[in-house]
Amino acid sequence: DTGVSQDPRHKITKRGQNVTFRCDPISEHNRLYWYRQTLGQGPEFLTYFQNEAQLEKSRLLSDRFSAERPKGSFSTLEIQRTEQGDSAMYLCASSFTSSPGGNQPQHFGDGTRLSIL
Amino acid sequence: SQQGEEDPQALSIQEGENATMNCSYKTSINNLQWYRQNSGRGLVHLILIRSNEREKHSGRLRVTLDTSKKSSSLLITASRAADTASYFCATADRGSTLGRLYFGRGTQLTVWP
């Protein structure tokens, strides 16, 4: 399967713990996005990478959140000192574009569902 | 914040019937995309329509875009039970070089066999 892969699929942790999620995009894709989705809502943008550079961060991404994409390949999203409000599905998507603009579909992974006890 | 709003929030139909979902948005866009999401899974891209296009077809899907009304519709013809899913519209802002998408809350479609 050469789609977007996310790990783990599910994470249950106690409030205050740190968690890290991994996303492996489609190999030739240069753009990588993280979204958060809560029950009954659509995905909300968190952050975006063009190759290894993190080019935009949403205000939703507090200082407890950090994302990396070393070498422009896989990406990690870390949440420190988790809070109950962090419970959500965290989705990763990737796309390829050779020009500015967003006229390319995004390919999503199946997400990591985070539950904070 | 979410930009698009889908209507209706929920739609229940019989197999073979057509399903129509609407999306309204607020700002000038580069393109509008429709995605499907099965329960517990990621989103699957269905169709992209650019701001200078008015209608697009893909198999049993037909999408229209009216930029003067800032609205779009997704028509699924001859629906099947396998079409049961949530459907989201997503917009990319005009002038944005980033490609970030703004999603609505979605329409939950249930197709009964």
Helicity level of chain B: under 10%
Helix/strand/pairing class of chain A, anyone?
mainly beta
Structure class of chain B: mainly beta
**What is the CA–CA distance across the termini of chain A?**
33 Å
- Beta-strand proportion of chain A: over 45%
For this structure, the quaternary state is heterodimer
Helix content of chain A: under 10%
Average predicted confidence as pLDDT of chain B: 91
Which overall shape of chain A is indicated by the principal axes computed on the Cα atoms? globular
- Sketch the major β-sheet of chain A: 7 strands, mixed
Compute the number of strand runs of chain A: 11
Note the overall shape of chain B.
Answer: globular
How big is the Rg of chain A? 14 Å
Low-confidence stretches of chain B: none
What is the chain-wise order of helices and strands of chain A? Answer: EEEEEEEEEEE
The end-to-end span of chain B amounts to 36 Å
Report the sheet-strand fraction of chain B. over 45%
Number of separate helices of chain B: 0
The profile of the biggest β sheet of chain B is:
6 strands, mixed
| Biggest interface and residues each | A-B, 31 and 30 residues
- Round the Cα radius of gyration of chain B to an integer and report it: 13 Å
What does this 3D model show about the protein?
- The complex is a heterodimer of chains A (117) and B (113).
- Chain A has no helices and eleven strands.
- Chain A has strands at 5-7, 10-13, 19-24, 31-37, 44-50, 53-57, 65-68, 75-79, 88-95, 107-108, 112-116.
- In chain A, the strands form two sheets. In chain A, strands 2, 4, 5, 6, 9, 10 and 11 form a seven-stranded mixed sheet that branches.
- Chain A is globular.
- Chain B is an all-beta fold.
- Helix content of chain B is 0%, strand content 57%.
- In chain B, the strands form two sheets. In chain B, strands 2, 4, 5, 9, 10 and 11 form a six-stranded mixed sheet that branches. In chain B, strands 1-3-8-7-6 form a five-stranded antiparallel sheet, with no helix packed on it.
